[in-house]
Amino acid sequence: MPVVRALSKVARQALQAPGCGCQPLAVAVRNISFSPRQVTSGSDASFHSVSFSETDHPKVLITGGLGQLGVGLAKLLRKRFGKNNVILSDIRKPPSNVFHSGPFIYSDILDYKNLREIVVNNRITWLVHYSALLSAVGEANVALARAVNITGLHNILDIAAEHGLRLFVPSTIGAFGPTSPRNPTPDLCVQRPRTIYGVSKVHAELMGEYYHHRYGLDFRCLRYPGIISADSQPGGGTTDYAVQIFHDAAKSGKFECNLKPDTRLPMMYIDDCLRATLEVMEAPAETLSMRTYNINAMSFTPEELAQEVRKQLPDLQVNYEIDHVRQAIADSWPMNFDDSNARNDWGWKHDYDLPELVQTMLNFIGAESRVAQVH
Q1: Contacts (Cβ under 8 Å, ≥6 apart) of 230
Q2: Which DSSP category does 187 fall into?
Q3: Phi–psi pair at 255, nearest 5 degrees
């Protein structure tokens, strides 16, 4: 307390000093630091990423950690940086295996104070922001999507800038719209999405780049294609069919698809997605010619996916019951991503094409089913 009182006295004296043509000194006695919420003057705002030596590991916080990607990314990062250096967070109760696999903490991205305390108390240096409502779910609850995807992002950006974090925010094929070039879609082009999810992701891209140029925030972003994984359930996205088909094929041999058979979308197996995220986070800043990159692996239609699955399960029956909301969303999205900048700048290269994807998914789900039958 004596230290705080002394600092307060110094602050008052500085504020009462005669004018010298400088901007007023902004002082936050509680934390003795600045954030974009506290500083409005261009001459006072300067934020830079925390530098750490090659022998030090980053301390990572993952928001929205119980979604499709968070648990897998935590597993990958813990192998790389150590179990206790990666903290998963969410507002939901974690399953037992996740809770016992490494640090987990409650974190609500709409609670600025709570999030700030987590960053400070755990000396976070990297923040991976996965909290979001996906496309179809967002259209069903626009107000909640706006709060989580936009207001929550603002909290993340301010805290990351204030504490010099390296920040990763994923974007998506949904950040493009019907007026964007679709085959292929380059990194830089017209973006006019027609979903709250897509609008919020364009907002995230632009705000992250603004904070990078305005405050020196080390912001990094990848536009993910549809992500396919075997160990998580679909989360309300338009590309969910490409996950559900494997579960239904293994369980009943019948699948009802909610998109037209010729709907082409870019896709990626989760292992490639998580590795790309780690690689872009570790890439030297000087190799990044931009802060938001497309990444891609393959592009296929529901019919092409079904044909590949039938090579392993020839009796698979597919029925098409079109969800017009999801179909309209898919028809506005890219058919194929141009990810040449990611490949040239930081060496991105995918491992899984469609045949490898199908084999891997069926092997995983088949093994999971056999274990369930035993128990």
Answers
A1: 243, 246, 360, 361, 364, 365, 368
A2: S
A3: -140, 135
Amino acid at 255: F
CB 221, CB 276: distance < 8 Å? no
Q: Are 352 and 271 in contact (CB under 8 A)?
A: yes
Chain segment 35-93, per-residue pLDDT in tens: 567 544 343 444 444 444 434 899 999 999 998 899 999 999 999 999 999 999 999 99
The overall pTM is greater than 0.70:
yes
pLDDT tens by residue, 130-150: 999 988 889 999 999 999 999
Helix segments in 93-148, DSSP class H: 96-99, 112-121, 135-140, 142-146
Nearest to residue 67, comparing CAs of 90, 83, 85, 84?
90
In this structure, the strands spanning 317-320 and 254-257 are parallel
Give 15-22's long-range contacts (Cβ < 8 A, gap of 24+): none
Q: Which residues are catalytic?
A: 197
CA distance 165 to 168: 10
Assess contact for 115 and 108: CB atoms under 8 A. Answer: yes
Going from the C-alpha of 224 to that of each of 209, 237, 270, 337, 354, the distances in angstroms are 17, 12, 10, 10, 17
